[in-house]
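Dear colleagues,

For the upcoming journal club I promised to circulate an example of a predicted protein-ligand complex. I picked one with FE2/S2 (inorganic) cluster because it came up in last month's discussion. The inputs are reproduced below in full, followed by the predicted structure.
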Amino acid sequence: MSEQTLFKVTIDNITIEVPAGTTILNAARKIGGDVTPPAMCYYSKLQGSGGKCRTCLVEVSKGSEKDPRPMPKLVASCRTNVMDGMEVKNITSDKVLDARASIVEFLLINHPLDCPICDQAGECHLQDLSYEHGKEGTRYEFQRRTFQKHDLGPYIQLHMTRCILCYRCVYVADQLTEKREHGILDRGDHAEIATQIQKSLEHDFIGNVIDVCPVGALTDKTFRFKNRVWFLKPMDAHRDCPTCSGKVTLWNRGDEVFRVTARKDEWGEVESLEDGSTAWICNTCRFEKKKTSDWVIEGPRAISRHSVISQGHYQGKIGMHKPRETFTAVHGGRDPKLLMDIHSVSEVNRPSIDLSLIEGPAHSTDFNLKKD
Amino acid sequence: MAGQIEEKHMQALTNRSKEVSRKPMSFMEQLYLPAILKGMAITFSHIFKKQPTIRYPEQKRPFSPVFRGLHVLNRDEEGRERCTACGLCAVACPAEAITMEAAERLPGEENKYREEKYAARYEINMLRCIFCGLCEEACPKDAIYLSETFAPANFTRKGFIYGKNELLIPDPVTEPEAYQKARGLKEPTTASQN
Ligand code: SF4
Ligand code: SF4
Ligand code: SF4
Ligand code: FES
């Protein structure tokens, strides 16, 4: 399309011109800020995604210039294209806010909300959504849907109980790998993500299901329970990878690499590369390169100030760099006299145990074996 | 002289300031003895007054119900550790006194830990702690609360790194008396719920 028709659309009283065929959600993302509806299932990098979760509902108060009638019901903004002269209400509409609160209540009906245990906590879209729109209590009185934990291959942990059935992982398996081995079984309340016949998924790019999962249903087993994301330092890094772009975010603690993920943009989606393709990363980069020496560190990753992950990173990029020791230099080569070396007493962060290099989650055996 | 005038214009902060008297002392004042006797009489009269001193540690002052003392890591009724190493106390702590390392519960350890993840290591550096109680407020599992005791004094700094050995409350099933004692008068906020 060389000559694009531009449509004028007004979202929450902010007018913007977008090419025809843009969805309301993407138009709102161009404006940015609070105007953008939340999206749990739509993923701009995955074709056909969206339309499953209904968190992105908006009110269309004027259909278009030609047909100014409002749309009778709230519409899913990720699946509705803009029309010329359309007027959309998101946060300015009480109806939308009310509906969104109900959607959150629906999503949480069977959700365990065990965030203290969940590895997604701190970067979970459902957590944010519940925090902003959720109700304090639940009205649900019945037994909740629960599932056994599954191992999807050696690296991926599936907590089906936390799944909100957004289908993103199914699209990843479909679009990134040649043979899809996992999908959704059953329907309605019984629907579950499963590997057909319990096959392990061994494709090079299957690890990306972890990044697309908006909740903690699919998590990295090599990182499982090792730390909380907000105690880690996200660093941009790259390596020469024959399979993928090799551009990743490292989640460090000190010099230990605890986790490797793709780089996420402001919508929590995997970033695009310069050539427009998506920076999916391969399993080798994600699960096997857990040493600082494997990577070329580019620098600290900027994290939104409002995210809990930015706690402890202080202002700007200070605190993400290792400070230079100046004491010895200004004291004529004398080392500072420590009143106590914390490692001589503390059992935590002992230099002899590298949690990041343990294969799966740590167990009592890992701690007790190396005790003395 | 100019200095004095300026001083007069200076605004006093309170109305209790007194000008220094530079009068020569009278004969009675020069004797000193009356003033000394007066002072002795005041000291003596205190023997008959009620003593405000409390003879710690034989006597203890009652604490207010909101007193924030030494931390206790709580267990549930079945004696399982409540803490799941979620790190919320550590992120809430303004003094960065709390550190921990998590582990996954193995099959067979269900009677020891309440959740599938637990704190294999949990430490509070009492030298850093300011006893603000924010950890207690942050905890979603009612696993940590501040009790009605002080952190006892110690000769070395090393004695102030409290690990799980020091912090965990005795098991209510196997050692009910020690548990009751450690729990103190102040109920952990959860005791009545669930
Ligand atoms: S998926 Fe999100 S909301 Fe659910 S338990 Fe995990 S962090 Fe909490
Ligand atoms: S009482 Fe305050 S300073 Fe002490 S450990 Fe708890 S949160 Fe930190
Ligand atoms: S004491 Fe509470 S807040 Fe702290 S890690 Fe344990 S469960 Fe979380
Ligand atoms: S994001 Fe539009 S329905 Fe899920």
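Two points we might discuss: The longest strand of chain B covers residues 117-125. Residues 33-45 of chain B form the longest helix (13 residues).

See you all on Thursday,
B. R.
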